[in-house]
Amino acid sequence: MDWFGADIAAPLVAARGVHLAASAITAGVLIFGATVLAPAASPMPQARVIGSRLRRVIWLALAVDVVSGFVWFVLQAASMSGLAPGEAIAPDVLWTVLVETQFGQVMLARLLCLIVLAACLGLDGIAAMQRLALAAALGFVGAIAWTGHAGATAGGEGAVHVAADVLHLWAAAAWTGGLLGLVLLLVALGRGPEARAAIMVAVRRFSILGLASVGTLLVSGAIHSWILVGSLHVLLVTAYGRLLIIKLALFALMLALATINRLWLTPRLATASTERATAMLISTAAIELVFAIAVFALVGALGTQHPAAHFLTA
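The structure corresponding to this sequence follows.
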């Protein structure tokens, strides 16, 4: 399969993309709950309903995490062993990959984080469990950095690369899961003066979360590109570079929509046109979320390609 000149292993790319998106939503919705939902909606009668909906989203994302993670692991084991996926699913092959490769060890650590997270969600009424759930989710998402190009970068540059990638993953999760949480929150709050006040608080706090996420994505993405691309020429002529350009274009579209939300729609929430502004905000946030899912599909493909900088020394 060919995407923009890249030789794509479609099943592996699909598994990685779905898993990355589900992982981001798992952590991002929890971040949204702690930073936006609790301050904005906790005094309202709808808070319990909204919290219940978000928990259902997290449980669904966890189920997708498990299935897509297993498929990714099997396909990666097949790639490492040179076997067909049906042969690579043999217990001895999977065990060897699990305990003797960095990829397998990282996936095992992530599985432990997932188990802790699921246990904490089952005890969600305890405040300490909520904090532990968030920590486990951040560990689950951040550890992905060691499964890709960052984890294969050696020396001091490798440490910087991994740190940047972890921050990039956290920021992407906060923005993506936050968008989903915001849409669900705005839909559930409904109308009325009390709802308007909660909407204003939620949107303002999400704006802060979004600005922090975008700033982190820009800085960490610049570090990532500096290490993996290296020059404008290879950005333009390599498969990795072309996929990265498409990813950056989608990110720019998301940023444009976020700017519209921040500078045009948010001020209108305090006016007589609150309901119309809220409806438009839901629509633009949903479109941003679609773009974010597309970005994860591209990230799934980028992880299977040789970095553009590889061709500078090839």
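The CA atoms of residues 258 and 288 lie 8 Å apart.
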